[in-house]
Amino acid sequence: MTFPLKRLRPNDVVSPAVYNALVDAIETLRAPLRTSQGGKLTASFPLEIHKHPGGAHISLAYTEREAFVELTSTLTSGGSASVKVLSYKGGWSQADTDEIVIHDAVGTMEGDVGDKALVKFHRQSGLWLVWQLQC
Predict the structure, then answer these.
(1) What is the SS3 assignment for 5?
(2) CA distances from 123 to 51, 114, 127 (A)
(3) Given pLDDT bands bounded at 50, 70 and 90, which one contains residue 73?
(4) What domains, with CATH codes, occur in the chain?
C-alpha cells in the first residue's frame, strides 16, 4: 500500500487491489484506537462519542443555544416576529449575524418593535422560541 492513496477519476473501475488498499488504510488508522486504553475510545468536551452497532460516531457535543434579541417586527400572542441578535461587548449591540424569526409557542407573549427578549433554540421543532419577553 502506498500513501497517499490515489484519487480515482469518475469512470475508473474500482479493482480489488484499490478497495483492499482503502481497507488497509482504514485499519491503519483504527489500530491505535483498538490498542490504546484497552481498546476504549474516549473524548472530552467539546467532542462526544456515540456507540452503535456499526461502530462509534464522534461529533461535536450539543450545547444549549440561546440569544438575547431585539424585536424588529411586532410579536402577537401565538405568533412570530423578526429579531436582531444582540451581543455583549462592554454593552449590548447588534451582533454581526442575520435576523432570525422567533415564535411564541405558549401563546402568551406580545411585544413591539424595540422590545428585548431571551430566546432558546428548540431542537425538536427547529424553531427559536421566546423564553422571556420584556414586560
Answers:
(1) coil
(2) 21, 27, 7
(3) very high
(4) 16-60 (no CATH), 66-133 (2.40.50.140)
Report, as an integer, the average pLDDT of 111-126.
Answer: 93
Q: What pLDDT digit, counting tens, does each position of 9-53 carry?
A: 888 887 888 788 878 877 777 665 555 545 566 777 778 887 778
What whole-number distance in Å separates Cα of residue 30 and Cα of residue 22? 12
Query: Cell numbers at residue 65, please?
Result: 443555544
Rg (CA), the chain: 25
Distance CA 44, CA 33 (A): 15
Q: Give dist(CA 114, CA 70) in Å, integer.
A: 6
